[in-house]
């Protein structure tokens, strides 16, 4: 005898929520490995403007803008991107899925509006914070809006109801173009020169470039901070901004104090190692590696109540902290399977966490589809609401804490637009390329029913323009994008953000359910003939 519908729905919902915890933990460690990768430095020769002599200085391997827009943005959006890729692979030879693309659009809507609302409410009344590096924020905002217009071009106007290899390649090329534009804006290539000064010769001969910094403003690091937030930013010198994360910090603290101190020392040494150096580990280093790896499993099981007591007030302790610990033990052990992030320049951990996230999103894809079948909702509605919100919750908590602790709004909302653009260009470019190339190799066409998805993109574009306009007006008349000078203004701004997000969800849901006619925008797959349509 089958379980009642409500029982099945509850079971699938709880399972989906539990999977989100696993993805959050794996994503946190994934981001930690990316931060180690991006912190690598190399030896370069620079001309001293004082003496005119060539001196050796240590410079970051990664340009901070390229690192933020590529690895950092992709790392913070890994669940959404990998979900779309996994769904495309699993559905080869079948009709194109909607869960992956709808999650990417839904996540963009949630991040842009709801994260800003949460950050605004979290700030004390009377506190207003603005984006310090406005040029890069405007650039990524314009590019992110174009990214979703590009989705409409592909789905509706270029080759309606069909996605070609050329469209997929152009989508990926635009991601590369995004990196080039970000780098050009940072180094101001149009000026053809940059002014530089050399620091004191006794201070490791570090070169300080006097160019406008576009990175998120760094804040004073707290002592004992061990957790690495999922949404991080690099400064121009390669340092990582790591605001303390309130709730998920207790869940995801899988490194002990000793292993964290060891990781910090080795990460610092790895950053000082020239790129491309290949040094074999001595037996002592190998022993330290296995000891740190073993310690990850020990810390995944042990509950350190003293660590909770020494943390921030927002960090759950007592019964709540203990409950969260036991609920997440399984996922802590799974995340501990990945090697320590400081080993091998971060790449072994990067690959290990990538495999973990792929395995978890495969289960999420199946569970979300089953939940939609039970409650009578399409994968598109489930993806743009529940799955999008679940995969974005860690970013919400991180951005809230960053908004409170940072002097400016860059670390809280500055990476949203860049991540949204990366989601489309990479999170859809890769699945489109995989599917279109697969069908092209068989002499067939990759058909995709735009359905309510095109309408969803159109609605999101409209509400995004409205919200970005509100942020611009607030910067002009209120002094900043986050916070408000009165409680009425603060809660009114939050209500507006929630209302715009609700309009997006309701309109898309009505179209998906067939209650609103979308024939004026949707292009059905009937115009595209293939063996799967």
UniProtKB/TrEMBL annotation:
Which compartments does it reside in? Endomembrane system
- Membrane spanning segments where? 6-26, 61-84, 104-124, 136-158, 164-185, 345-363, 370-390, 421-440, 452-473, 493-511
Q: Which residues form the Sodium/calcium exchanger membrane region domain?
A: 12-181, 349-507
The organism's taxonomy opens as:
Eukaryota, Viridiplantae, Chlorophyta, core chlorophytes, Chlorophyceae
Q: Low complexity: which segments have biased composition?
A: 269-287
Query: What keywords sit in the KW lines?
Result: Ion transport, Membrane, Transmembrane, Transmembrane helix, Transport
UniProt topology in membrane: Multi-pass membrane protein
Q: What is this protein called?
A: Sodium/calcium exchanger membrane region domain-containing protein
